[in-house]
Amino acid sequence: MLREYGIPFLPEVLVTDIDLVEDALSGIPGPYAAKLCGENISHKSERGLVRLGINSVDAVKENCRELLKAARPEDCATGVLVAPMATGLREFIAGVSVDPVFGPTIVFGLGGVLAEALADVTARLAPIRRHDALDMLGSLRSRSLLGAFRGEPAVNLEAVADLLCSLSDAAVSIDRLRSIDVNPVMIVNGLPIALDALVELSDAETES
Asked: Which residue segments constitute the domains of the chain, with CATH numbers given?
């Protein structure tokens, strides 16, 4: 759902047939990450439904079998999503929260292991424009992390602004939207990459 709004995801395939894994991953380099997907699955990591650092196609097949076997009937599992691993030292969170009075709000902040401890998050009412998105980045207390960091290049602020503006477009376009949670947004070679996302509608949850 979110890809059509320009949210930057890695190339990925949804595996529903183990026998087709090798063909599906043709042209997608490893190592891989795999996660079980389903209409009612929102907390995959807590249930061990995410596998990282998978180094071969055969190992992807085995992990897909295990993940599909771990699915519960109430999960309404749709398959296993497989994508190349992304590595980076900086993680952020981005999303949309819809208030019944004020409407959709665009949110961006520090993610990863320090997210809860520092609670460094900024928000603006949607729709936002590019200058609003850039202002959000400048208002973070941890904005120094947007610069060059431990051998990694500075974050491309324009690319992050694109991400926030894309979320704004989605916020005002998706019917029955309750929330969008893009978490984590990892910085890879200076660019933001969405590694997981959850879209919650008024009467359903769908993953992207």
From this structure: 2-84 (3.30.1490.20), 91-207 (3.30.470.20)
pTM of the predicted model as reported, rounded to 2 decimal places: 0.85
Q: Smallest Cα–Cα separation from 196: which of 179, 180, 184?
A: 184
Asked if pLDDT for residue 118 goes beyond 90, the answer is no
Whether pLDDT at 205 is above 60: no
